[in-house]
Amino acid sequence: MKVLGIAGSPRRGGNTELLIQTALTELASEGLETEFVSLADREIGPCTACGDCANVDPPRCTINDADFEGMIERFIEADGILIGSPVHFGSATPQTMALLDRVGYVSIRSGKRFLRHKVGAAIVVARRAGQNFTFAQLNYFFLINEMFIPGSTYWNIAFGREKGDAANDAEAMRTVKNLAQNMAFLLRKLHA
After folding, report:
1. pLDDT recorded at residue 71
2. Are 133 and 91 in contact (CB under 8 A)?
3. What local confidence, expressed as pLDDT, does residue 170 receive?
4. What is the pLDDT of residue 125?
5. What is the side-by-side order of every strand in the sheet holding 80-86?
6. I need a surface site. Which of 18, 26, 57, 115 has the fewest CB within 10 A?
7. Residues of the chain with pLDDT under 50
8. What pLDDT is stored for residue 52 in this prediction?
9. What is the dihedral of CA 141, 144, 150, 154, to 10 degrees?
10. Cα 66–68–69 angle (5° rounding)?
């Protein structure tokens, strides 16, 4: 089984990446294969709702931007998907939502619904507030795509602004590790 971890932060090495990598390390210790993708250096344009993805097989987005290349295949291949985003003005980053909008649109419009019955989890970090709005926003993506969402001992949120600050949020670090353990448990049950 494989889990795809995506850090939707526009900066490399920040708190979002730290939290996603922490979860992926825990998942790897549970025997799962993991893959990490950072959106920091990727320019992914938004979905234009052109509908062309309904007419191509295999499923793909017909917008031609190189940094989106291979993302649909990664989502199809993964059994579990971790999405992390910092909070930008009370919501996920534009990079995160451009990726999710396009992947979700292709999944649904193609008729393949390739995200259905996968396991998805969101991890969110902010300096002070807005985590719950962004956490809900990312969970809506999982829910509309018929994915299963594991819980943890608290919401999968952290506090931090400067790189590495989230490591000092002991409760967040425990929550993310527990989330990964629960994700591994759920994946094993689904694939038994």
Report:
1. 98
2. yes
3. 98
4. 98
5. 33-38, 2-7, 80-86, 119-126, 157-159
6. 57
7. none
8. 95
9. 60
10. 65
pLDDT at position 63: 95
Structural domain that includes position 169: 2-190
Q: Based on the structure, what is the number of domains in the chain?
A: 1
* pLDDT at residue 39 in the model: 98
Q: Can you give the pTM of this predicted structure?
A: 0.97
State the sign of the Cα–Cα–Cα–Cα dihedral 98, 84, 58, 115. negative
Question: What are the angstrom distances between the C-alpha of 94 and each of 78, 103, 170?
Answer: 23, 14, 28
Q: Is 32 in contact with 92 (CB distance < 8 Å)?
A: no
Residues 97 and 59: beta-carbon distance below 8 Å: no
Query: What's the confidence (pLDDT) of residue 72?
Result: 97
- Rounded Cα–Cα distance for residues 184 and 181 (Å): 5
DSSP label of 110: T
115-129 as b/e: b if 16+ CB within 10 A: beebbbbbbbbbeee
The token pair that represents 63 in the structure block: 């917008």
